[in-house]
Amino acid sequence: MQETLDRIRALKQKWLPNLFGRRNVVACGIGYKIRSGVQTRELSLVVSVTHKVPAANLLADDLIPPQIEGVPTDVVELGVLRAFAGPKERWRPAVPGVSLGHARISAGTFGCLVRRGSDLFILSNNHVLADINRAHPGDPILQPGPSDGGTLPIDQIAALAEFVPLDFGTAEPTCPLAGLAAEGLNTLAKLLGSSYRFQPVVQTPGVNRVDAAIARPLRPDLVSPEILGIGIPVGVGEAMLGMTVQKSGRTTGYTTGTITQIEATVRIDYYGPQATFEGQLIATPMSQPGDSGSAVLDMERRVVGLLFAGSDQATIINPIADVLSALRVELVT
Q1: Average pLDDT of the segment spanning 272-292
Q2: DSSP label at residue 10
Q3: 8 Å CB contact between 122 and 223
Q4: Could you tell me if 315 and 246 lie in one domain?
Q5: Do residues 60 and 78 make contact, with C-beta atoms less than 8 angstroms apart?
Q6: Does 120 share its domain with 187?
Q7: Is residue 230 part of a domain?
Q8: How much is the pLDDT for 147?
Q9: Residue 273: cis peptide before it, omega within 30 degrees of 0
Q10: Cα separation, 306 vs 107, whole angstroms
């Protein structure tokens, strides 16, 4: 074994300039060869590339031969290798998993990229991008978020496009008679010396399915679909009981958890007002404040949900199908 290892080490040094001159090559090392998805005990010269390309699309000089001087080669896809920066720092292009938020909030997480036709959007929560219903389309979205040092105008990467309103059970009335009635009652209360005042409200169903919003990047090159520490999503999936899931978030970075409940009805405290959500996923604790907006994926990199709430004992997730339907968008893969 040592003799074989020494021979491959010398061969690697000899061929290194040649291999790094080939298209998409980012690394070269020694490892066990993988055949049909199974790791063997056969030592090989491992050539890593950003992405695999069909042989027909490569020039002959860019092809990695099946063996070099009798030593088998193995081509492995690793993606673009970058020096790591923290999720709270400034990223250009910005990637899912890093800090961002409306200019008036603290900070949340860039979930993933979605599209509607040819239009590209950043997906996150209403309370991250739309300041719990208080924002307006066109408002600036910063990366990093304000509490991580994001400032206008230098850190604006997007503008709020749309959000699904959060329903807290009441709304401002549109009926002029209600306003007049409240005004009359308040006048009477004042004459009677009472400090109490009447305020008209409309009772609403108070039931939600998603906490979601989208923002339009100022330029497409300011964002990338590659989720920090996970990679580019391969599609959309459905969360199942017992499934292991993963996410990359602004506060806790890369974490994994397990789906413990489906079709859950939960009451979420928005630091004062409370909102009820139906049809939710509950996972083991895998997040902290600031991770809101993270895309949640299965271990095959299919997006299954959008993280939006939790505690020290649990993480609460919107099923991704409900999110995409509510915003009329599709996942970018």
Answers
A1: 92
A2: H
A3: yes
A4: yes
A5: no
A6: no
A7: no
A8: 96
A9: no
A10: 16
Q: Residue 301 in contact with residue 245, Cβ under 8 Å? A: no
Q: Are residues 104 and 138 in the same domain?
A: yes
Question: Which domain range does residue 34 map to?
Answer: 2-77
Q: Is the pTM of this model over 0.85?
A: no
Is the same domain home to 55 and 106? Answer: no
User: What is the Cα–Cα distance from 64 to 302, expressed in whole angstroms?
Assistant: 30
Work out the pLDDT band at 175, boundaries 50, 70, 90.
Answer: low
- Is beta strand 71-77 parallel, antiparallel or unpaired with respect to 38-49? parallel
Residue 289 lies in a domain: yes
Residue 219 is given by DSSP the state: S
Mean pLDDT of 290-319: 95
Q: Nearest 5 degrees, angle CA 104-CA 122-CA 91? A: 75
pLDDT digits (tens, 9 = 90+) for 180-193: 554 665 565 566 56
Final residue of a domain: which of 46, 77, 108? 77
Instruction: Based on the fold, state whether residues 162 and 175 are members of the same structural domain.
Output: no
Q: Quick one: DSSP state of residue 276?
A: E
Q: In the prediction, which pLDDT does 185 show?
A: 55
Picking from 169, 130, 134, 126, the residue whose alpha carbon sits closest to that of residue 274 is 169
Residue 21 per-residue DSSP state: T
> Quick one: which H or E segment has residue 1?
none
Q: For residue 58, what are the contacts with CB-CB under 8 A and spacing of at least 6?
A: 23
- Tens digits of residue pLDDT in 68-91: 999 999 998 877 655 556 799 999
One domain, residues 129 and 149: yes
Residue 146 lies in a domain: yes
Exposed (0-12), middle (13-18) or buried (19+): which is 197, by Cβ within 10 Å? exposed
